[in-house]
Design brief:
Strand content: under 5%
Oligomer: single chain
Largest sheet: none
Helix content: 40-55%
Structural class: mainly alpha
């Protein structure tokens, strides 16, 4: 069986505020209720949540409600849609 080092990966840089908003959403979302068209989409979201937990250089899990609200405001500030 192939090890994790054998799996092709993609590195993505996120703004800290985006990471906080996405992690908070993933933590509060029941993945069984997210509309999907293929089971791999649900798994990919679960994998993203796992990567946030294990790979973030800033532990987004420990953010306070105030930090989450500030991140949401920052991300939403310049939304053009």
């Amino acid at each position: 069986m192939a090890g994790d080092d054998d799996i092709p990966t993609v590195n993505i840089r996120l703004w800290r505020a985006d990471a906080i908003v996405l992690f908070d959403w993933l933590m509060s979302t029941d993945l069984n209720t997210v509309p999907i068209t293929h089971p791999a989409q649900k798994q990919a979201l679960a994998d993203l949540w796992d990567r946030f937990e294990s790979a973030c250089d800033y532990n987004v899990r420990e953010c306070s409600e105030e930090e989450i609200a500030a991140a949401q405001a920052e991300v939403a500030r310049d939304m053009g849609w």
